[in-house]
Specification:
- The protein is of the alpha/beta class and 310 residues long.
- It has 2 domains: 21-116 and 254-307, Medium-chain alcohol dehydrogenases, catalytic domain (Quinone Oxidoreductase, Chain A, domain 1, Alpha-Beta Complex), CATH 3.90.180.10; 117-249, Rossmann fold, CATH 3.40.50.720.
- 23% of the residues lie in helices and 20% in strands.
- The chain contains 10 helices and 15 strands.
- The strands form 5 sheets. Strands 10-9-8-11-12-13 form a 6-stranded parallel beta sheet, with helices on one face. The chain has a 3-stranded antiparallel beta sheet with strand order 1-2-7. Strands 3-4 form a two-stranded antiparallel sheet.
- α3 crosses α4 (145-154) and α3 (117-127) crosses α9 (255-267).
Length: 310
């Protein structure tokens, strides 16, 4: 939505979004060895990278030193132009950037958001070793945050959800949160000061970070994965120095790790909570997203694209 509405700079038109794509292989090239026609597969946020730099060689294609090729809105040399994404009935992708899906067929639509929301929350949790014995906070209960709660719970961490709304307490508990904190309640926040090992901040709006860094224990880390339209206020450096706390960022995940995430989710029966829509309702969906009126991810039924000219 941000890219389509040019809220992030650099939108290339015509813009065909979509980087949480699931479906079946309809054809393969002569040198493809990992997939066959009929396989259930997914394509996430990347369709290429240099595959030569240290990051790519380490399986961290998202940090490619010359920049990865995004599934949409990336300039490409051949064919000249830019990539077009998953709001389509077919897409051609190098097999190195195609993922195997093992969830049951009836869950396929709900698997799609894992290809961005899933890996974006999974990767930092793995990097900062979220698991049993760790107290983990998830800030925001939206498209990213609701998956983050499910993952942290499945990893065995004590999972605390932060929300600005009293009305979301029961929703967060149903997703797997052990406890829910209303961030506007100063008493609740103070009760958890200096206690979190790790906080995953999924909020994509500019806000005061200090209220969360104050909750980190010694050597605790808060990772930002939401990209706000306007910068966050600068954090209070003394809050970081006083407990050797860190604020870090994380960008999606590499292809091998994305496959690992999908396998973990299949094993732990994790999918996104979705609302399926036809393409004809995309503008309505964008407007509802602006109002946070979705639980928690829209998925387009691409079969509806065939009805556009009917």
């Amino acid at each position: 939505m941000h890219q389509v509405r040019s809220e992030w700079e650099g939108t290339l038109y015509p813009c065909v979004p979509g980087h949480e794509i699931v479906g079946h292989v309809s054809a393969v090239g002569g040198e493809v060895t990992g997939f066959k026609v009929g396989d259930t597969v997914g394509v996430g946020c990347m369709v290429n990278s240099c595959q030569k730099c240290p990051a790519c060689k380490d399986g961290l294609e998202q940090y490619c030193e010359i920049g990865f090729t995004a599934t949409y809105n990336s300039e490409i040399a051949e064919p000249s132009g830019h990539t077009l994404g998953g709001y389509s009935q077919q897409i051609v992708v190098d097999e190195k950037f195609v993922l195997k899906i093992t969830h049951p067929a009836e869950q396929l639509a709900a698997v799609a958001p894992l290809l961005c929301a899933g890996i974006t929350t999974y990767s930092p949790m793995r990097h900062w070793q979220v698991g049993p014995g760790k107290k983990v906070g998830i800030v925001g209960i939206g498209g990213l945050g609701h998956v983050g709660i499910k993952l942290a719970h499945a990893m065995g961490a004590k999972t605390i959800a932060f929300t600005t709304s009293e009305d979301k307490r029961e929703d967060a508990r149903a997703l797997g949160a052990d406890e829910v904190i209303v961030s506007r309640n100063a008493t609740e926040m103070e009760a958890h000061a200096n206690s979190f090992d790790f906080i995953l901040n999924t909020v994509a709006a500019s806000h005061n970070l200090d209220v969360y860094t104050n909750l980190l224990k010694l050597d605790g880390t808060m990772v930002l994965i939401g990209v706000p339209e306007h910068p966050h206020p600068s954090p209070d450096v003394s809050t970081l120095i006083s407990r050797r706390r860190s604020i870090a960022g994380s960008l999606i995940g590499g292809i091998a790790e994305t496959q690992e995430m999908l396998d973990f989710c299949a094993e732990n029966k994790i999918v996104a909570d979705i609302e399926m829509i036809p393409i004809q309702k995309i503008d309505e969906a964008y407007d509802r997203m602006q109002k946070s009126d979705v639980k928690y991810r829209f998925v387009i039924d691409n079969a509806s694209l065939g009805e556009m000219n009917d």
